[in-house]
Amino acid sequence: MTLKHLSIINYKNLAQVELELSPKINCFVGNNGMGKTNLLDAVYYLSFCRSYTNPVDSQIIKHDADVCMLQGRYELEGQDGEEEIYCGLRRRQKKQFKRNKKEYEKLSDHIGFIPLVMISPADIEIIQGGSEERRKFMDMAISQFDKAYMHALIRYNNALQQRNATLKMDDNEIDFTLLELWEDQMAGEGELIFEKRQAFVKEFIPVFDEFYKRISLSNEKATFDYVSQLRENNFREALRQTRRRDIAVGHTTTGIHRDELEMLLDGFPIKKVGSQGQNKTYFVSMKLAQFHYLLKTGKRTPILLLDDIFDRLDAYRVEEIVKLVSSNEFGQIFISDTNRGSFDKILERINNSHHIYSVKDGEITVYA
Ligand SMILES: Nc1ncnc2c1ncn2[C@@H]1O[C@H](COP(=O)(O)OP(=O)(O)OP(=O)(O)O)[C@@H](O)[C@H]1O
Q1: Fewer CB in 10 Å around end: N or C, the chain?
Q2: Same structural domain for residues 51 and 98?
């Protein structure tokens, strides 16, 4: 999977960008706040129909503009010709998302077509944030290769919302037949989501473990465990049993929306005991394992985006990550950093084609 050409108009601080990209490594260097993350985020947008950093579309249009446009031309492995992905945003209007000039009926149809993994400092939230961050990680990872999972999740969340709205009604207004209907839908979709999350985590852990060991070259034992109320309970029955309590609190207290990934370092929660470098090693290993998983399950090599990830890692860990991502297993890579030195280290090891760009006040030029 290669992004050959990228055009941007008015994406955050990037007023106008035209780039011919290297099929292997593309480095973006510049000071803080210049637009490096925005550039990587634009590439992310073309895969996921949304920004990695800001879920509100109107806020990604350049402040002084009304329209924003992204266009990418891709080459797919084993396929002749190019694929063109286009996104047009206009304030107060529905976004247009097109593949080869044909508009998608549903944006979810596009997810997974351009597989991509982004690693950024914001991923610390997977460890430090609430359990919804860890569920989001699983959902993003599985949805990219499993449409049935994504659709089950959409239906589950809809049924959950409906059940919660019903629980908030006055007792005499609650329609128990309707409540049962939402519960049946939640149970059906929830069981499927649980099975798929369980299978994903089972395969994912050994790969993650391997990456963590390689990057840290230590005896630190990093692992995690999937915790779900569905493991021990029949979900449909559990929903019936917790109804009274749920009516009292006004929301659903049982289900896969309460699942958790317990993240451990040497048997202790990494959230509590991990150093900054260990935390970073942990989430980088998770994302690389996600890449590996996508590669194994999908038809195409994902694009990898590394946004400013070397800060706080010791020289040894940086070198190991560089060795890993420059191996043949990885395809096209976009890297951003404030320091040209990090790139030189990376490029020393690689004979492959690479481009280095300078990013300054939203303008991108080939590095002199
Ligand atoms: N909608 C927008 N319109 C114009 N500028 C925006 C918009 N959204 C964000 N910006 C600007 O983008 C800049 C941040 O860019 P970005 O996050 O890409 O920086 P960076 O080069 O990655 O910096 P760092 O090294 O600090 O991570 C800020 O100056 C911010 O004001």
Answers
A1: C
A2: yes
User: Per residue in 273-307, pLDDT tens?
Assistant: 999 999 999 999 999 999 999 998 887 899 999 99
Both 336 and 248 in one domain: the answer is: no
pLDDT along the chain (368 residues), means of 10: 97 97 92 96 97 93 96 91 96 95 94 94 95 95 92 97 94 89 96 96 93 88 93 92 94 96 94 92 95 88 94 84 86 90 70 84 88
Nearest ligand 1 atom, CA 307: 22
List the residue whose alpha carbon is closest to atom 3 of ligand 1.
62
Distance 309 CA to ligand 1 centre (A): 17
Residue range 122-166, pLDDT digits in tens: 999 999 999 999 999 999 999 988 999 999 999 999 999 999 999
Which residue, of 238, 273, 297, is where some domain finishes? 297
- Write phi, then psi, for 239 (nearest 5 degrees): -65, -40
Pocket of ligand 1 (CB under 6 A): 12-13, 30, 32-38, 59-63, 308, 338, 359
Q: What rounded mean pLDDT belongs to the chain?
A: 92
Can you give the pLDDT at residue 368? 58
Among 269, 297, 325, give the residue marking a domain's end: 297
Domain that holds residue 363: 1-115+299-368
- Determine the residue of 9, 10, 37, 361 to mutate for testing ligand 1's pocket, defined as the one with the most ligand atoms within 8 A of the Cβ atom: 37
Q: Which residues of 25-48 are buried (b: 16+ CB within 10 A; e: fewer)?
A: bbbbbbeeebbbbbbbbbbbbbbb
DSSP state of 148: H
| 99 lies in the same domain as 133 | no
DSSP letters, 206-263, are HHHHHHHHHHH-SS--EEEEEE-GGGTS-HHHHHHHTHHHHHHHTS--SSGGG-EEEE
ipTM above 0.90, yes or no: yes
Assign residue 104 the CATH number of its domain.
Answer: 3.40.50.300
Q: Are residues 76 and 105 in the same domain?
A: yes
Q: Are residues 48 and 150 in the same domain?
A: no
